[in-house]
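quick one
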Amino acid sequence: MRKPMAAANWKMNKNSEETRQFLQEYMTQASDLSGAEVVICPPFTLLAMLQQELASPNAPAWGGQNCFWEDKGAYTGEVSAPMLKELGCSYVIIGHSERRIIMGETDGQINQKLKAVLNHGMVPILCVGETLQQRENNAALSIVKNQLDKNLKDLAVQPGQLVIAYEPVWAIGTGVNASSDDAQEMIACIRSRLRELFNDDLANSTRILYGGSVRDDNIAELMAKPDIDGALIGGASLEADSLVRIARIIANG
Ligand code: PGA
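structure w/ 2-phosphoglycolic acid:
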């Protein structure tokens, strides 16, 4: 049984005052969300605040948006997996397309990062997805399969320890989401690739999210599909009431 997930990717947004206000609003509105697991991934600078403010049992989990693969050393500007673990992170987003494209992260680096996150007892949320040009060239399925093969290479992962987010690059921050049929088709392919690379257990237990312009008015249709286990939400996760509305639909989906 896969518990649906609503994961908020705040990207490089919010200061501490805005976060305090968000958390207050969220906690007053977030009743009846027990059917979903909510995860908030803020910038690194806010993780200590979340650790302090979200200590209650029905509060959301939190996670990082990236991490480095080495535990420590001369890597100026980087943050390691044990550092995130110390701040109470349960999840770490790895391989987001903004990191692949803007920061030039490679599939090999993403593979090392996934191993670091797992080694430190956290669950990676691996992002995969094709660009518009790749979709128009009918290459979407092969691009995503190739990302999975390289990113998941030699990964020692147990059932329940992996989350994947299918995020078509052309849908991120554009207001144009993938159709529920296209998202379902890709996510079913991702699940069958997991079956081939690992086993039935891992394929059946891995939550696979859709991400890219998710809002409260398009999430229900996505959640109606059998393989879609939730969403990675960017822009629409920055306001507490919007995140709560989406999470409620995911919880009841
Ligand atoms: P968006 O971002 O919801 O603003 O499209 C999603 C993401 O990048 O994770």
